[in-house]
Design brief:
Number of domains: 2
Bound molecules: adenosine-5'-triphosphate, L-tryptophanamide
Shape: globular
Order of helices and strands: EHEHHEHHHHEHEHHHHH
Radius of gyration: 21 Å
Number of strands: 5
Structural class: mainly alpha
Helix content: 40-55%
Strand order of the largest sheet: 1-2-3
Length: about 325
């Protein structure tokens, strides 16, 4: 039996954090043995907001190295950079012509990111269509992402269905693949917001490359509520619940077990232990990252990834061009 296809992507915008890892990248690793996985560094998505060109090249390689450092094995999964496969832009245009401004206006990420600016970049508005193209090019069955991306997967399904209805069966219907604990890791300084790469306060997040001292500071000053009881209650106690989720993912212990373990002890001991757990978890990832980032292997892996991804993407595009009536000469 053929393995189901999995596709996902991360933007090369720096500061890859525990939210990105727990919500998305950890799943990438967990799925690579059972499924046919393709993981992309979505540089074309990142330019929907202004980027420094020199820095973008570096952060693109940083994310590729991080993919491998967290355990994605290029012998099992394809790793490539979105802009090196032009079929993404091509399919994105065709899908744009089958989408409506109304449905795009409802995307909450667009509303969040364009808030405050009178005239948002068009790319920010059409961002989810490019994401749909990414997914549909690879006959994707499962898309492992954090829960903030669920709405974009719904739109992808709508676009696929619309296209299939109009032209006949062309695209596989993709599904969101989430996790139960940690699908939305919250900001440490304000647990009502999601942990984000772009937040100004560096202590709102823990980046995968943070050094131990920084991790300690961020966790020890993380916002918790006043009653000092360790209990999992995301609505009533969002701060401590968020830390419990991180603790659970990094130790493999169930939340209930952790709560029982800390019964009667205050936040201090719990936070101290969490600092150690996070630092121990990140140390080997960081060591591997610096090795890979400097090696020639990285470029080799990305070149091979481009070749493999291009072959699949071109196969899909041939089908799509034929369906919409583009001539083949
Ligand atoms: P931004 O700072 O613009 O919000 P981002 O942190 O969402 O950026 P992306 O590259 O857009 O970064 O996201 C990569 C993956 O990480 C996506 O699958 C996204 O759903 C997931 N993700 C991002 N933030 C979180 C979070 N706080 N909790 C869980 N998953 C997350
Ligand atoms: N929009 C996603 C990144 C992304 C993606 C994709 C995720 C772009 N293309 C395709 C899964 C599949 C985000 O994380 N903000």
């Amino acid at each position: 039996m053929t393995k189901p296809n999995v596709f996902s992507g991360v933007q090369p915008t720096g500061n890859i954090h525990l939210g990105n890892y727990i919500g998305a990248m950890k799943q990438f690793v967990d799925l690579q043995d059972e499924m046919n996985c393709t993981y992309c560094i979505v540089d074309m998505h990142s330019i929907t907001l202004p980027q420094d060109p020199k820095q973008l090249k570096e952060t693109t390689l940083d994310v590729a190295a991080l993919y491998m450092a967290v355990g994605i094995d290029p012998a099992k999964a394809t790793i490539f950079v979105q802009s090196t496969v032009p079929q993404h832009a091509e399919l994105s245009w065709i899908l744009t012509c089958h989408s409506y401004t109304g449905e795009l206006s409802r995307m909450t990420q667009f509303k969040d990111k364009s808030r405050g600016s009178e005239s948002a970049p068009t790319g920010l508005f059409t961002y989810p269509i490019l994401m749909a193209a990414d997914i549909l090019l690879y006959d994707t069955k499962y898309v492992p992402v954090g829960n903030d991306q669920k709405q974009h997967i719904e739109l992808t399904r709508d676009l696929a269905e619309r296209f299939n209805n109009r032209y006949g069966e062309t695209f596989v219907m993709p599904e969101y693949k989430g996790i139960t604990v940690g699908a939305r890791i919250m900001a440490l300084d304000d647990p009502t917001k999601k942990m984000s790469k772009s937040a100004e306060n560096i202590h709102s997040r823990i980046s995968l490359l943070d050094e131990p001292g920084k991790v300690k500071k961020s966790i020890m000053r993380a916002t918790t509520d006043s009653d000092s009881v360790i209990r999992f209650d995301p609505a009533g106690k969002p701060g401590i619940s968020n830390l419990l989720s991180i603790y659970s993912v990094f130790t493999g212990k169930k939340i209930d077990e952790i709560v029982a373990q800390y019964e009667g002890s205050g936040y201090g001991q719990f936070k101290k232990d969490l600092v150690e757990i996070v630092n121990n978890y990140l140390a080997p990832i960081q060591e591997k990252y610096y090795d890979i980032r400097q090696s020639d292997e990285l470029i080799r892996v990305l070149k091979e990834g481009t070749e493999k991804a291009s072959a699949v993407a071109e196969r899909t595009m041939k089908r799509v061009r034929e369906k919409v009536g583009f001539i083949n000469i």
